[in-house]
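TEACHING EXERCISE
Course module: macromolecular assemblies
Task: Read the component lines below, then compare them to the predicted structure of the full complex.
Student: A.B.
Group: 4
Components provided:
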Amino acid sequence: MKVTVFGVGYVGLVQAAVLADFGHDVVCVDVDSDKINDLKNGIIPIYEPGLTSIVERNYGEGRLGFTTDAAEGVRHAEIQFIAVGTPPDEDGAADLKYVLAVASTIATHMTSKKIIVDKSTVPVGTADKVLSQVSEVLATRGEAIEHYVVSNPEFLKEGAAVNDCMRPDRIIIGTASEYVKAQMRELYAPCNRNHDRMIFMDVRSAELTKYAANCMLATKISFMNEISRLAEYLGADIENVRRGIGSDERIGYHFIYAGCGYGGSCFPKDVQALVHTANSINYDAQLLKSVEAVNYRQKEVLFDRISRYFAGDLSGKTIALWGLSFKPKTDDMREATSRVLMESLWEQGAKVRAYDPEAMEETQRIYGCREDLELVGTKESALQGADALVICTEWKAFWAPDFDQIKGTLRQPVIFDGRNLYDPQQVERHGLAYYGIGRGRSVSA
Ligand SMILES: NC(=O)c1ccc[n+]([C@@H]2O[C@H](COP(=O)([O-])OP(=O)(O)OC[C@H]3O[C@@H](n4cnc5c(N)ncnc54)[C@H](O)[C@@H]3O)[C@@H](O)[C@H]2O)c1
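Instructor-supplied answer key:
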């Protein structure tokens, strides 16, 4: 089938490459000409495991194309995906300006039937807005061309996006049209060979399903972070508690790790957006507001501890930081906890020596060159001349470090572990002080 995808970000590019890999004929359109030129030259603008090879292969074999020419993209296919960003606006609502701009573009250039598939995460009611945007533009053109708007939210995880798109847990399709259902079935047929993953529903339920999924996951994290704070005050170990509750199959082991807060481009903005949607219908979403508040507070935990450990005097201190991206296997720094920490440390006159396997270029792009930030090539060199080690992201490279070397290199033998990677007793046996999250001890020093 012929497909056009608007937006070559984390979602659009992966989706396009996977659809091309299934054998479809895909054209990607983006307004960012640098990204499009890079892609044509084999440079992939984001880090995502497995993505480079499928982009290269399908581009090389002519099933995947890149353009900034929207008219060409609209002409190419009946199925038009919208996969552009929906960042929060000033009051937390999802900003739909990019989505509606693409809707206008499609309506401006279309000369034949179109199925507009909304893959961006958008509030309930957006499909109606896209539909009226398209109708308005068609009306000004004096044209009446058959078109449909369908909600097909994306559930991929950054760091595992290619696999998630190839083998999705479910494919949600929000539409009332039998024709659209049949087209979507054909498009996604390669995903359904093992078993049917398609779930059809009305468009509003599909839009809400995406927010419900992300808010549920964010809730699990904030819940565990709340319990971890209690564990600290009560002298319990959150890791024992985690194992204890995970064994209950109604709870399960997935996604119940305490840590230094969630970040990324989705959870923070999606929780905020659903709170905003609730406000707009005068519903007080108390649970969601608390999920957000707990996370906000949790992102300050590392700085708080470090500051207390050094008796509030961080001026002239150097902090070694392992992990900058909001989670492992991505270079995405959006809403990363490392940013909250670094900015607080800098405000107090401390320096940061940081290492991350993939996110250093992005960090440099965000913060530029500054004297109080040094990005170094290995995790070991981050320790040189540092007063303490902090772990912000649970990259595999940090799972089993040489604790004797850490002890021998740091000026002060202390680790602040924002991801509970280590066993406190094991670390302490190496002569290092250890502060995890909810491990039965808060810094009172
Ligand atoms: N990143 C994730 O893990 C993830 C997962 C599921 C859903 N989502 C949702 O998918 C959507 C896209 O997220 P993302 O992370 O891929 O965003 P992104 O910021 O990485 O990419 C968006 C792309 O859209 C392009 N764009 C903007 N306006 C355009 C226009 N008018 N025409 C063509 N291209 C245009 C931008 O240049 C950019 O390349 C969001 O709604 C997000 O919430 C993201």
